[in-house]
Write a structure and sequence with these properties.
This protein is α/β, with parallel strands linked by helices and 654 residues long. It folds into two domains: 394 residues, Growth Hormone, Chain: A, CATH 1.20.1250; 184 residues, Rossmann fold. The protein is 55% helix and 11% strand. The chain has 23 helices and eleven strands. Strands 7-6-5-8-9-11-10 form a seven-stranded mixed sheet, sandwiched between helices. The C terminus is likely disordered. InterPro entries: SAM-dependent_MTases_sf (IPR029063). This is Spermidine synthase. Keywords: Membrane, Polyamine biosynthesis, Transmembrane, Transmembrane helix.
């Protein structure tokens, strides 16, 4: 189940670009499907052939009707205007959501059928071990850069092992979808010529423009970068020269380029006389293409040191000092994971990030950033953020009104910068600087945009109808209302962990995978402790849980960032996983004594889906406040706890 969920999130997002920004959409469909699969247990004994059949149909539909995104909508978490091709979002997104639910419902139904045959926590234990295996396998394939045909082959083999029937019609119902999935994904792999990085499907084209060799790079079907000779890029676009001009024309000896990509910004720094360049790029495939195809070969230069990591994480751990720090068009075009609204570069544009950059400037050093910002208020917001971090007004050059192409440059001191026209300052309508707790640069107002509200409302409405149609009357789940709320709260805890570790250690896929695996290990540890030892009564465990939430609230991220890496990791793990462990001891004890294990587990999973919707509250209140929301939900779960479960006697070891 977890392997399928991760594969669907990655693959659909690479072909339907709306899902590069709404990966949560596939996650919610997956949770709905898993919950429905458990609720179906006992209502049918037929093998769930509908799952591989739906997967095959989804793969064919997505490959036949890929979508590029229209990112002109106000208030959402992306920007830069492009046109849309393919089916409209109101058509393709419901198809993907429903298909994800149906695909995941099949294996969930198989898992659910095992639960009545085993002791509750024994079954849950196997489920968690399987989840860890799924995330481990998908992480290994991501590390190897395996294309989706490999993912599809793994899924087809798993379906074959789980569902292989004795009858010829059944074998056809299984074999044909498996062949369709593997064949379609193989055709995509062979024709696209793509590199599958841990973040994107990366494609590239090569051509000469009036004798100038150019490599166009697209990610997930969107034009992203160009590898162009440094001299020509300086002739064509003034934004690349302005950081050096605003630094007073001084030759920068040490330069840091965050968002080095295919290497053009690094090549320009070398052309401007840099003695050493640290080139930081989060995506290994973009770095690989730059090393192979950039005509200036900047990554072969001995003056260049390449680091494949998150830019903010590099700033927090490096001891280097620089004459010039460049944020070179950092626009990730994707979210960190399916469990948050955080983009890969979100923590680069906060006030705290610019303060971190300031700390790594030499005397007389300069910080600069450039991009196409689409709206003037975005330019002013970033300029105001630089002013707040450095204590004086930056230089602001709007190079082109089309797309608000702008360069923002600020010296360590006002004397270190050499501006053209003075920046007038931010208007009263300009939003305040983004902060680490609420790092949503492109969200103008403290609100949940209407497009998210409508989408989430439709998801919940469809989910209510689906639960009623598949599982029967809602009264089946009424005794497990507390488990439902435990699921809602736990998803918020997981989101808070993912975003917290992304800030502390980087938004890389490795950190993301380790955090998800860590969450599952904490859950498994809670189950093992509950099985093997006498645990305190549930009221006591609820007290430990709320205490863990209070501790996580009281320990600020700014303090953790000030610690060396090893103690930071130790404290962060303790603070983040204490409430997760306690929450799952509560769940394990309550689940172990439930009368209907599959219904109880299904209710908990459906709660997690609702928690995925509530995650968008962070757009309004910030990620730290999700701990308060989770605490309120846990108090609600305690209030709904059945009277016999409040008994002070500890359950026997299982």
């Amino acid at each position: 189940m977890l392997f399928l969920e991760l594969a669907l999130i990655r693959w659909t997002g690479s072909n339907i670009v709306h899902l590069s920004y709404f990966t949560n959409f596939v996650l919610l469909g997956s949770f709905l499907g898993i919950g429905l699969g458990f609720l179906r247990v006992g209502r049918t004994t037929r093998p769930p052939y509908y799952s591989p059949i739906t997967l095959a149909v989804l793969v064919v539909v997505v490959l036949l009707f890929p979508v590029t995104v229209d990112r002109r909508t106000e208030g959402v978490l992306y920007w830069t205007s492009l046109t849309t091709t393919g089916p409209p979002p109101w058509l393709i997104l419901p198809v993907v959501f429903a298909a994800a639910a149906i695909v995941l419902m099949g294996p969930a139904e198989l898992v659910g059928r095992c639960f009545p045959a085993l002791e509750r926590l024994e079954a849950y234990r196997y489920d968690l071990v399987g989840s860890l295996t799924g995330i481990g396998l998908f992480t290994a394939l991501s590390f190897l850069g395996a294309p989706p045909v490999v993912w599809g082959t793994v899924a087809a083999l798993a379906y074959t092992v789980l569902l292989w029937p004795r009858t010829t019609p059944g074998r056809l119902a299984l074999a044909v979808p498996a062949l369709v999935v593997v064949g379609a994904l193989a055709a995509e792999t062979l024709t696209a010529g793509a590199l599958w990085s841990p973040y994107y499907k990366v494609t590239h084209d090569h051509f000469d423009w009036h004798g100038v060799p150019i490599t166009d790079i697209q990610v997930n079907g969107i034009p992203h970068q160009q590898a162009v000779p440094a001299g020509r890029r300086l002739e064509w676009e003034r934004q690349y020269a302005l950081p050096y001009e605003r630094a007073g024309g001084r030759r920068p000896d040490d330069v840091l380029v965050v968002g080095a990509g295919s290497g053009t910004d690094v090549a320009i720094a070398l052309l401007k006389g840099a003695g050493h360049v640290d080139a930081v790029e989060i995506d290994p495939s973009l770095r690989e293409l730059g090393g192979i195809y950039h005509p200036d070969r900047p990554y072969d230069d001995p003056r260049v040191t390449t680091v494949v990591t998150d830019g903010r994480a590099f700033l927090e751990r490096t001891t280097g000092k620089y004459d010039l720090i460049l944020f070179a068009l950092p626009d990730s075009l994707t979210l960190v994971s399916g469990a948050s609204s955080l983009r890969l570069e979100s923590y680069l544009f906060t006030r705290q990030a610019m303060e971190a950059a300031r700390e790594h400037l030499k005397p007389g050093g300069v910080f600069s950033m450039y991009n196409y910002y689409r709206e003037r208020w975005l330019v002013d917001r970033l300029a105001a953020t630089a002013q707040a971090a450095f204590g004086h007004r930056p230089c602001v050059d709007v190079v082109s009104q089309a797309g608000q192409q702008a360069v923002i440059t600020v010296g360590l001191t006002a004397e270190a910068q050499s501006c053209g026209e003075a920046w007038a300052g931010a208007s009263a309508a300009t939003p305040p600087p983004a902060e680490d707790d609420r790092p949503f640069l492109y969200l103008r107002d403290r609100t949940v945009p209407w497009v998210y509200l409508v989408t989430l409302g439709l998801i919940l409405a469809v989910s209510l109808l689906a639960v009623r149609a598949v599982a029967g009357p809602y009264r089946r789940m009424r005794p497990y209302a507390d488990l439902f709320l435990l699921g809602v709260a736990f998803l918020l805890l997981e989101t808070r962990s993912v975003t917290g570790f992304a800030l502390l250690f980087g938004t890389t896929w490795v950190v993301n995978a380790v955090v998800f695996a860590g969450v599952l290990l904490a859950v498994l540890a809670a189950v093992e402790v509950t099985r093997r030892f006498r645990t305190p009564p549930l009221p006591v465990m609820y007290g430990v849980l709320l205490g863990g939430l209070a501790l996580a609230w009281l320990v600020p991220a700014s303090w953790l960032l000030g610690l060396p890496p090893a103690p930071r990791a130790l404290v962060a793990v303790t603070v983040a996983f204490l409430p997760i462990f306690a929450a799952n001891v509560v769940f394990a004890r309550r689940f172990a004594d439930s009368a209907d294990g599959t219904t109880a587990f299904g209710a908990n999973l459906l709660g997690a889906m609702v928690g995925g919707c509530l995650e968008y509250l962070a757009l309004v209140v910030g990620y730290q406040a999700l701990l308060v929301v989770a605490g309120a939900l846990y108090l609600g779960a305690f209030a709904l706890l059945p009277g016999d479960a409040r008994s002070p006697g500890a359950v026997r070891a299982r």
